[in-house]
Amino acid sequence: xxxxxxxxxxxxxxxxxxxxxxxxxxxxxxxxxxxxxxxxxxxxxxxxxxxxxxxxxxxxxxxxxxxxxxxxxxxxxxxxxxxxxxxxxxxxxxxxxxxxxxxxxxxxxxxxxxxxxxxxxxxxxxxxxxxxxxxxxxxxxxxxxxxxxxxxxxxxxxxxxxxxxxxxxxxxxxxxxxxxxxxxxxxxxxxxxxxxxxxxxxxxxxxxxxxxxxxxxxxxxxxxxxxxxxxxxxxxxxxxxxxxxxxxxxxxxxxxxxxxxxxxxxxxxxxxxxxxxxxxxxxxxxxxxxxxxxxxxxxxxxxxxxxxxxxxxxxxxxxxxxxxxxxxxxxxxxxxxxxxxxxxxxxxxxxxxxxxxxxxxxxxxxxxxxxxxxxxxxxxxxxxxxxxxxxxxxxxxxxxxxxxxxxxxxxxxxxxxxxxxxxxxxxxxxxxxxxxxxxxxxxxxxxxxxxxxxxxxxxxxxxxxxxxxxxxxxxxxxxxxxxxxxxxxxxxxxxxxxxxxxxxxxxxxxxxxxxxxxxxxxxxxxxxxxxxxxxxxxxxxxxxxxxxxxxxxxxxxxxxxxxxxxxxxxxxxxxxxxxxxxxxxxxxxxxxxxxxxxxxxxxxxxxxxxxxxxxxxxxxxxxxxxxxxxxxxxxxxxxxxxxxxxxxxxxxxxxxxxxxxxxxxxxxxxxxxxxxxxxxxxxxxxxxxxxxxxxxxxxxxxxxxxxxxxxxxxxxxxxxxxxxxxxxxxxxxxxxxxxxxxxxxxxxxxxxxxxxxxxxxxxxxxxxxxxxxxxxxxxxxxxxxxxxxxxxxxxxxxxxxxxxxxxxxxxxxxxxxxxxxxxxxxxxxxxxxxxxxxxxxxxxxxxxxxxxxxxxxxxxxxxxxxxxxxxxxxxxxxxxxxxxxxxxxxxxxxxxxxxxxxxxxxxxxxxxxxxxxxxxxxxxxxxxxxxxxxxxxxxxxxxxxxxxxxxxxxxxxxxxxxxxxxxxxxxxxxxxxxxxxxxxxxxxxxxxxxxxxxxxxxxxxxxxxxxxxxxxxxxxxxxxxxxxxxxxxxxxxxxxxxxxxxxxxxxxxxxxxxxxxxxxxxxxxxxxxxxxxxxxxxxxxxxxxxxxxxxxxxxxxxxxxxxxxxxxxxxxxxxxxxxxxxxxxxxxxxxxxxxxxxxxxxxxxxxxxxxxxxxxxxxxxxxxxxxxxxxxxxxxxxxxxxxxxxxxxxxxxxxxxxxxxxxxxxxxxxxxxxxxxxxxxxxxxxxxxxxxxxxxxxxxxxxxxxxxxxxxxxxxxxxxxxxxxxxxxxxxxxxxxxxxxxxxxxxxxxxxxxxxxxxxxxxxxxxxxxxxxxxxxxxxxxxxxxxxxxxxxxxxxxxxxxxxxxxxxxxxxxxxxxxxxxxxxxxxxxxxxxxxxxxxxxxxxxxxxxxxxxxxxxxxxxxxxxxxxxxxxxxxxxxxxxxxxxxxxxxxxxxxxxxxxxxxxxxxxxxxxxxxxxxxxxxxxxxxxxxxxxxxxxxxxxxxxxxxxxxxxxx
Length: 1499
Prior knowledge:
Blueprint: H1 14-28, H2 34-45, H3 97-112, E1 121-122, E2 184-185, E3 191-192, H4 195-207, E4 247-248, H5 262-272, E5 277-282, E6 288-293, H6 294-310, E7 325-329, H7 335-348, E8 351-355, H8 366-375, E9 380-383, H9 385-390, E10 409-412, E11 436-443, E12 449-455, H10 456-470, E13 477-480, H11 487-499, E14 503-506, H12 509-514, H13 518-526, E15 530-533, H14 535-543, E16 558-561, H15 569-580, E17 590-596, E18 600-604, E19 617-621, H16 622-626, E20 640-644, E21 648-649, E22 654-658, E23 673-678, E24 685-686, H17 690-697, E25 715-723, E26 729-734, E27 738-741, E28 744-747, H18 748-757, E29 764-775, E30 780-788, H19 794-812, E31 816-823, H20 837-846, E32 853-856, H21 858-861, H22 877-886, E33 893-895, H23 914-924, E34 929-934, E35 940-945, H24 946-962, E36 971-975, H25 980-992, E37 995-999, H26 1007-1020, E38 1025-1028, H27 1030-1036, H28 1039-1044, E39 1052-1055, E40 1076-1083, E41 1089-1095, H29 1096-1110, E42 1117-1121, H30 1127-1140, E43 1143-1146, H31 1158-1165, E44 1170-1173, H32 1175-1185, H33 1189-1194, E45 1204-1207, H34 1215-1224, E46 1235-1237, ...
Parallel strand pairs: 5-14, 7-8, 7-9, 9-10, 13-14, 13-15, 15-16, 16-17, 30-31, 34-43, 36-37, 36-38, 38-39, 42-43, 42-44, 44-45, 45-46, 57-58
Antiparallel strand pairs: 1-59, 2-3, 4-22, 5-6, 11-12, 12-24, 17-18, 18-21, 19-20, 22-23, 23-25, 25-26, 27-28, 29-30, 31-32, 33-49, 34-35, 40-41, 41-51, 47-48, 49-50, 50-52, 52-53, 54-55, 56-57, 58-59
Helix pairs in contact: 1-2, 3-18, 3-19, 5-6, 6-7, 10-11, 14-15, 23-24, 24-25, 29-30, 32-34
């Protein structure tokens, strides 16, 4: 440690020391900047360190001797001299200068191997921390010690440059003028110039050294994914000692005048020594205010006992009977009232249950306290008048109903409300037996609260054992700083006190906050013989050490340190001794002890004899401890743990050490285990919990062979430790703080200490750090949560987090899964101000912790992922096929009805072209209504009969000839809103022999986004002319449009609003049906714009197949709520009515935005049997009308007429949406069988469509794990990892499909997932592209199976993966029906770890994890999985999503998420069909255009 010249801090003048302490305090509370602090500090110290010119004195290290340096000399830790104006209750237990040095050394080692961790990207507006003064300071906190060897100086030499934070220059993307070489090449060789990719590159660099067990040579069985079971390290230390034998304490002495019960002792002193002081309470300033004498205690307890039994109810119906349980609710600063109430209950033979005063309706852990009260059957609570007034009240002045609490009656125990007992009334004081005396609550690791029941005999025997161990004698004075309601504070300060007629001075926490030295002063003033403290109190006293000139601690024979079981107590004790030895403190007076609610006092160091050698120390290897063995640390002093003994076993007790898990097998002598105690002095049971009681209070140890050792039951203490030489007991941790990761045990407290030892003063608020483990993916994972100081900078916090990860890795050899920083004062608190761990863990798992910084390291922690799958080489497609046939699997293929066999006596058949059909209808049925267009109000705004449509088409054709001077075969872009105008323009183009291309018009409010797509299609289709409306024509030439595209080079634009009435000389007739009829352009989900060519024969075949499947004829009506620009939507809107003659009611989907009821009320009003919609429309109705079903009923909407409601889609059926739609509108008559979906793709727009006849759509559950291996395994509903899939309608007549292995192009069996190939007369005839890429065309449109098809059929590849299953149902043909299931687009699948994933499956898992996730999309980039989630909650929830997303993807998909991006709602692009555009999203992310709320890079 740094020592200024002149032998340490003590040599500095007192006022300089005081000024330093003030300064340090200002820094820790954020009143002064780091820079200002250093300046002032240097100024103060300058006169005392002349030789070190310009160097921070803290950086001058001196060689250290082996003994722990006395704290007085460690100047940099001048925080020891803080006044405890602020503070932290947890931190002081972890003070250890030895440990701090170890951490610094470990970090220095890391400095050599720099790791550049990418810093998370955060939107500036997010997480504005509340100013420090607005935070309510926690109850009893002291400033955390600055436990750093290099003080928190920011001089460049002092800060270890462990993390290379990317220079801020990168942040805004590269400079516009930068040349190609300055861009970064990603792993794919793609040049990228954005801060996002720089960070991902950094992330990839850090992942190039993953901590992973080496892969086995090759992968054998790829059917089941086997999770790696961590193999035990062959070199791990194993216990070598012999089996331990239980250790006995000294016998319990027999004293002649020992009372038969504790109440008897009270009666004795109360009647014979009434004037003797029993308990003195202090006021807030630390001055004694009231002394309770034994006489007063006796008389007031008697009064209360009498009142409880006789005055609360009526004579015949008392409220309380002996044996009932009563809650004691007393504040920590009122020991007198508590003591009276406690003894009053004992005298009345009712069982007191002391609990904390509830502060709010929803205290952390309050619900569990309520559960304890309920299970104890408590209806009555005793409290003081003052306390009652302070409880939270409702508006009308009643005490609020605390969450989870039973209804309580509150009884005030102040003397004036009590009745004096009659002379003849005496309490019944029987000899102590096993009946319950009181119940002490304890909170388990999971957060549940249990009541440890202590019997009267145990209470008495425990007092006896303590009196003997501590050698108490009558009239001694003791000072108690502990909570007097439980544990050692209750045992010494309230019970043993009365047993031995001691005088207790109770120092409440509130006093310690204003005057940390108060307990030392009480010891000095009252010449106290014994003091009961925790390490924290020692620390506070040292901080106030300037006020201690004239105090003397020479009277102390025992300074009982009750958290001596905490491994870091040793340095607090040492430091305190070195400071106060000069004030008369004897080294042998320091007596650490170990306690637990179940076993009570486990061990205590007896007061030593002056001059005798001091008790033991053990320096243990952390690595050995993690394997549960005791090894003296020799080699690596960084990872050592120094522990002090906690003395010997209690008098009359016996102790053994058993294995912490499994059967209670005795440990070997060099093995760590759970300490078990057998004596009359422990608790007897958990109230009302017999099962848990048996495992804790009635343990019979067994030997290696499993046979019981003796018949004496032991109590598990919950402490981990061992019995060392000379039967000294050593404790190394608590079972509740045990984290078992990959078979190794770590102690939460040890990890907290390591975190605090990393310069935490700049980042961590008051040393508040919580460590716990969560179970993720078959192992425990360590989570560290710390409160961040309000003034901590982003960079400091990130630096601290990165260094903590390294320190924990070096010292404990364990990875941290998640490290989160939350705003100051936001973690749930225990009643005494510590962190409520189980509640914090619950918040973490629920996503309600609201971190302001987070770092996840799944890549380093998760080492048990299954091995990546390696494709088996050398198996040809033919052998796969033969193998399938031998295994009895049929080839996966299916077909619709055969067109040749269908009797179709329709007159339409004689026409080859749609133009002929329209002319024929115009002559045969001129007034038959074909189309009806509705507006948002549901009123028809435009209609078209056969003749009107024919006439309108003729006029448009003549305009094309006259104005456009077009020739047959020219391409014409049709730019219209959804309506009849579009249909007329389409047929007009056919009449003129032009090739129509329908395009969605640009959005007037969003030209920059929508106009470029229009321009692109116009250019790619080489359009000779654009037909449109006047409004759109003006928009195309507007100034706003010019900002988005080049408006000067549009082809001829013709508006068709006012057409001349001119007869067309002749209607064009194509020479052959194979001639091109129209082009169908669409953007796929992967962002590809593709146009396909549809011939006249394909149009005819398509319309005929739909007519047959849906039984369409001229007397039918259908309602269409779809976009009419491409695919099946276009076909249904523009072509089918002309071919089949049925009437189409057209509902433009955008009208639903102003009237959600439009579609459903139209269907109801016109009694429609068949309706078609898109997923977007269905989702709009489900979300928007979900709570309006009653309104629909009231409007008379009835959907019982609907026979088929078909969702037109090119994707896996969204079964959850269709099911919720069916369920919602069941109440207005919608049949559960009506809803179905279609399946089409670019090569063939209609492959499946449910239709009117044929069996209902079937559903199956398939195993997700098998799907990743391209296998299909059906499982039962509810099976883990199962996925529900629905059939995509029935295959259309004339269509054949076969499932093919996309790599080998050979057919597969029906238990395999493969690409769906289609053969049908209405397949498109090829892509229409600028380059007419022939090879691509041949591959997609005219391809043959690589074998197994003698007929050499020409197939088209749909680009979708699916499978065929033969069902039990009968098809229309009478055969068994083959169902086609679509799983997802081949282009979209993610190849990760050798497996095939479908984005939608990962997205579904992610969307379920938190209520604030509105939408989610995933994609990969350079082997990293990127998850983008839209946050619909408040921004402070953004970081809660990071661990939840990481967990769920790991648990359900065995994948590690590389980057989590949290964005605003509506950022994920969705096309008109309601499909996510993941590739657009990916491009925007890499180009840094998303404006994310937060980007987390998982390590």
